[in-house]
Write a structure and sequence with these properties.
This protein has 93 residues and is of the alpha+beta class. The protein has helices spanning 3-14, 18-38, 83-89; strands spanning 42-44, 48-55, 58-61, 68-71, 74-81. The chain has two domains: 1-40; 41-93, HU Protein, Chain A (Irregular), CATH 4.10.520. The protein starts with a helix and ends with a helix.
Length: 93
Amino acid sequence: MTKSQLIEALAKAEGITLKMAEMAVKVSFETMAEALIKGDRLEVRGFGSFKVKNYDGYKGRNPKTGEIIEVKPKRLPFFKVGKDLKKRVNGEI
């Protein structure tokens, strides 16, 4: 499902205009992103949780040239699926 399809589904389900649904989706995603940028954990009950994981830097190797390169430390968002969603995807509910 794309963001556009999500907006259309929200508009249809709630009987609102596409513009209003687009704004709701945009605000939701932006608020979630801002929370993760600040380092907060985000939990959507029945769906899953998001958090930011910190990874240390290391020395890697370019597979093409074999040259050793320095990989800088980084922070990446991580999603952990919730129990309810996992059961629904597996057809257990």
